[in-house]
């Protein structure tokens, strides 16, 4: 092997000094794997993050970024400075368990078509329950709404062993993503224009359109606190989720589905905005409008990106995209668990 390490665990930080004492020790303790280094990439924090790292965690390598680039571009800037075979992108509020690295790395090593893997992600505060951001692997419905095995919209399942089989998924959570370094770089990394939220789904979609696979490995388990970047039910999070979903769909939809699905999604966003308004959720209503305004401002740039991605697209139909509306299933048919969807993505 060359001088570069095999595995680089990269934690992006912004003003997260209070999280280090609680979560970093588990990463150091449980990452005693050959040729592995732990890196904290600091997004120009204004707290004492760097001082705490240098004083209490000298074994951790530090990358100092010159400004706060956000989650997506922050990782892009940091990973330009990292040489490894595999990147492990890990949120700063994640506790890892013994032997969390080996199962995922083994999957990536033994399958050339596999480029990214997600472990089982449980809640740090409710350890017997899945965590919102990733749970047991991510999917989307036909209109681009993301959901997970173990979590549909805001309904989260308990971990009863029902998702203890490795499987192909549509997207791996950015809270803890194992990815081949060459694949990340060849795909152009995250889309920095997303800033934060859904950048990992966009990346996974681009990789799958190139013919690669994403997988879930339940034999690796981590516990995620969640809400570390922005609290759940935050208007800014609403804005980023609505806007970035439009960005993602516009870039990645196949030509066959583009006009029909994108038009339907615009209508559905209008319905969501009306629901917010009638529920007196004025900040969320405003967030939808801001999201659509930003989409139109970025339309020229998005068109250029779509044109380039279409040149690289070799797979246009993905079995892991649910061929129905998850909103209809959840709100009208009252199907609140993944198993109730009867989503046989293995045989689609």
What does this molecule look like?
By secondary structure, this protein is of the alpha/beta class. The protein folds into 2 domains: 7-224, Spore Coat Polysaccharide Biosynthesis Protein SpsA, Chain A (Alpha-Beta Complex); 235-317. The chain is built from 11 helices and 14 strands. The chain has helices at 17-29, 49-56, 70-79, 102-109, 181-186, 199-209, 235-252, 258-278, 282-297, 299-312, 326-332; strands at 7-13, 36-42, 61-64, 86-90, 94-96, 114-123, 138-141, 146-148, 151-152, 155-156, 167-169, 176-180, 213-224, 321-322. Strands 1, 2, 3, 4, 5, 6, 11, 12 and 13 form a 9-stranded mixed sheet that branches. Strand 2 (36-42), helix 2 and strand 3 form a beta-alpha-beta unit. Helix 7 (235-252) crosses helix 10 (299-312). The termini are far apart. The model has no long low-confidence stretch (mean pLDDT 96).
Distance separating the two termini: 40 Å
Integer tally of domains: 2
Number of helices: 11
What is the share of helical residues? 25-40%
Write the layout of secondary structure elements.
Blueprint: E1 7-13, H1 17-29, E2 36-42, H2 49-56, E3 61-64, H3 70-79, E4 86-90, E5 94-96, H4 102-109, E6 114-123, E7 138-141, E8 146-148, E9 151-152, E10 155-156, E11 167-169, E12 176-180, H5 181-186, H6 199-209, E13 213-224, H7 235-252, H8 258-278, H9 282-297, H10 299-312, E14 321-322, H11 326-332
Parallel strand pairs: 1-2, 1-4, 2-3, 6-13, 7-14
Antiparallel strand pairs: 4-12, 5-13, 6-12, 7-8, 9-10, 11-13
């Amino acid at each position: 092997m060359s001088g570069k390490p095999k595995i680089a665990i990269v934690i992006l930080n912004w003003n997260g000094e209070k999280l280090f004492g609680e979560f970093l020790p588990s990463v150091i303790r449980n990452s005693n794997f050959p040729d592995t280094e732990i890196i904290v990439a600091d997004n120009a924090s204004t707290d004492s993050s760097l001082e705490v790292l240098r004083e209490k965690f000298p074994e951790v390598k530090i990358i100092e970024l010159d400004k706060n680039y956000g989650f997506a571009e922050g990782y892009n800037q940091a990973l330009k400075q990292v040489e490894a075979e595999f990147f492990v992108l890990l949120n700063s509020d994640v506790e890892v368990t013994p032997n969390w690295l080996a199962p995922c790395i083994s999957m990536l090593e033994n399958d050339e078509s596999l480029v990214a893997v997600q472990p089982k992600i449980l809640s740090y505060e409710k350890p017997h329950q899945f965590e919102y951001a990733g749970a047991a692997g991510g999917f989307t419905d036909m209109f681009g709404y993301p959901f997970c095995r173990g979590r549909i919209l805001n309904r989260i399942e308990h971990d009863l062993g029902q998702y203890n089989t490795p499987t192909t998924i549509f997207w791996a959570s950015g809270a803890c993503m194992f990815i081949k370094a060459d694949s990340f770089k060849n795909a152009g990394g995250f889309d920095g224009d997303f800033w934060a939220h859904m950048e990992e789904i966009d990346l996974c979609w681009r990789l799958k359109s190139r013919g690669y696979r994403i997988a879930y490995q339940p034999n690796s388990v981590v516990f995620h606190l969640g809400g570390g970047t922005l609290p759940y039910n935050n208007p800014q999070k609403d804005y980023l989720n609505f806007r970035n979903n439009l960005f993602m769909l516009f870039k990645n939809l196949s030509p066959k589905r583009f006009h029909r699905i994108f038009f339907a999604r615009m209508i559905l966003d209008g319905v969501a905005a009306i629901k917010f308004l009638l529920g007196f959720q004025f900040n969320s209503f405003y967030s939808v409008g801001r999201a659509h305004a930003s989409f139109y401002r970025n339309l020229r740039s998005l068109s250029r990106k779509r044109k380039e991605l279409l040149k690289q697209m070799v797979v246009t139909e993905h079995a892991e995209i649910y061929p129905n509306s998850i909103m209809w299933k959840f709100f009208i048919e009252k199907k609140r668990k993944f198993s109730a969807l009867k989503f046989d993505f293995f045989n689609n």
